[in-house]
Amino acid sequence: MPTEPMPDFPAGFRWGVSTSAYQIEGAVGVDGRGSSIWDTFAHSPGRIVDGSTGDVACDHYHRHAEDVDLMAGLGVCAYRFSIAWPRVQPGGTGAANPAGLDFYDRLVDDLLARDIDPVATLFHWDLPQPLEDAGGWLNRDTAHRFAEYADLTAARLGDRVKLWITLNEPFVHMSLGHGMGVHAPGRMLLFDAFPVAHHQLLGHGLAVGALRARSTSPVAIANNYSPVRLAGDTDADRAAAAAYEALHNRLFTDPLLGRGYPAGQDFDAGVVRDGDLAVIAAPIDVLGVNYYNPTAVRAPEEGSPLPFDLVPLDGYPRTAFDWPVAPDGLRDLLGWLRDTYRDDLPPIEITEGGCAYDDAPDGTGRVPDPERIAYLDGHLRAVRAALDDGVDVRGYFVWSLLDNWEWAEGFTKRFGLVHVDFDTQVRTPKSSYAWLRDLIAASRRAPAA
Hints:
The protein is an alpha/beta fold. It has helices spanning about 20-25, 35-40, 60-75, 85-90, 100-115, 130-135, 140-155, 170-180, 195-215, 235-250, 275-280, 325-340, 370-390, 430-445; strands at about 15-20, 80, 115-125, 165-170, 220-225, 230, 285-290, 295-300, 310, 350, 395-400, 420, 425-430. A hairpin with a 6-residue loop joins strand 12 (about 420) and strand 13 (about 425-430). Helix 7 (about 140-155) runs parallel beside helix 9 (about 195-215).
């Protein structure tokens, strides 16, 4: 357990938790919900480590009141959730499904009744299957369908959602879903996946306009970032590190902030039309930063299809996902964003940060998870240090409130502050839940920092 007291955070710092629709809601096919690419992918043999699906997941669709009670008990002031596009528009086009919007209407009202800000993400990877059948994000038309979906959703919820997030981790959706095929929709295009990047960003820009027409709340995007660590000292190693940084960190940030796509990279720009970059650069109010770990990079082996090799980052403890626990990487990343984008950089919120461990109830029914407490303690201290360095960070959302269905890993990885027995759906707060609850309470009592 940490022994040093946590430094105070600024008054108004937003303490939150995050989830996503497909990972927790369940209720597949209920109340008119359509099929998503993750339904298709999860039901394809061999795609998911344990053969499970998100058909039930945490059954949040039916248990959301219990989960809001857990958030209120934790003391968070914000909940970042995602809205399932297939629940709102089962076919990805046309009129909204009233029953789908009714669910989110209830959720938003329940949150507000407990003084918890609703933070809604419009796309957390669950594209309606009919849109995928028409080409998915490889098809420019999907960007326009996304803007229509944003309009329908904001028309219903725009008076109460406190922060809109258009896309979650477009880099991950492009790279794992379309480049390497390990996530839905399972395409293996490598660098031919660039249209997916551009059309997601175009959809973001179009959605910003749709949201602003319906809501006065701020608008953001949540990008996944990984600071690059050089694993070598040759010019080739440095070139490889620059190529990876351009792909992972700059491809989805430079154009958002009005700088166009990174120069000197072999991105296929043939899909970029006149006016697209201006749409993509529609001003945002917040940059969401999802951080899990740095990436070590060196020059590729001869004949490699990629311009870099990714290698293990030594010298750090590891999570159950075998990711390095590197709080210093978060401070480095926040400084890199400040130094790279300067006056173009909007305020930052850490929209995801968390860790997977093999948590289980002990003989008393409690769920001790000291590794998660240490993880959160270290990363929150890194945020506090970045604030001292002059980075404008407004909040931190823990991934995740609940143990959930972890994409291609199924139920084998537990990220939650709350343990979920997936057979009984019993929720048990872990020791990290109590630790964070006490930290948030102390932070709210502390004088402004």
